[in-house]
């Protein structure tokens, strides 16, 4: 009886040890990879409304002191030239993490809703398919908002240019979905993370889950489970200290 108990204990210990070892091994494979090298825009391609792919209109996307910067110092006025900076490869299952801060003033002529407004356009269409006069790529926008000094203006809302999804378990075609994210006033650094698993998204701000949603589709009903990553230029100066990606198993 004692021998049988001892064998059972050893078997249980071996299973737990193997399971722990497996978890440790899996954790070690989770590796954050920088998408921005801190030196230049290698791996990224700009696209502005009414400009050809690859044209960095008025040198808006820059690297300043090691920070990826959306800079409007060379602009006199905004006239609808919305910009996006596309990463070179598409993804489907991943986490993306960024640390950003808003700086300076909005360029003259920018729309009111675009004050201290930026974001990631995820599952974006191939930038090569974007029309010259197109304002936004078909995508799911994870919106970054900065507070305006008073009142609530939560970050990590959702916008749906050319797309639709399930919100709180129900289909919606709303273009802007307020998620209840935190309001951050001033120019402090903010760290956000988005977990993407095909057509399922999760938003996280400063370590806390803000929202989850799924069943992402194009407006024609086609499932949207992968695509390109792009950063906006919508008239608000902003800096990114880091942008990192971790591939996830499907």
Range of helix content: 10-25%
- The average pLDDT value, as a whole number, equals 91
Terminal residue distance: 46 Å
Query: What is the CATH third-level topology name of the largest domain?
Result: Jelly Rolls
What is the oligomeric state here? single chain
**Count of individual domains:** 2
Report the biggest beta sheet as strand number plus sense, adding barrel if it closes.
10 strands, antiparallel
% residues in beta strands: 35-45%
What's the order of the H and E elements?
HEEEEEEEEEEEEEEEEE
Name of the CATH class of the largest domain: Mainly Beta
Radius of gyration: 21 Å
* Low-confidence regions: 1-16, 22-28
CATH superfamily of the largest domain: Exo-inulinase, domain 1
User: Structural class of the helix and strand makeup?
Assistant: mainly beta
Overall 3D shape: globular
Number of strands: 17
How many helices? The count is 1
Molecular structure report:
The chain folds into 2 domains: 1-30; 34-247, Exo-inulinase, domain 1 (Jelly Rolls, Sandwich), CATH 2.60.120.560. The chain is mostly beta strands. Strands 1, 3, 4, 6, 10, 11, 13, 14, 15 and 17 form a 10-stranded antiparallel β-sheet that branches. The chain has one helix spanning 2-29; strands spanning 33-34, 44-48, 61-64, 67-70, 83-87, 93-102, 117-124, 140-145, 157-159, 163-167, 170-172, 176-177, 190-197, 200-205, 208-218, 228-233, 238-247. The chain has 1 helix and 17 strands.
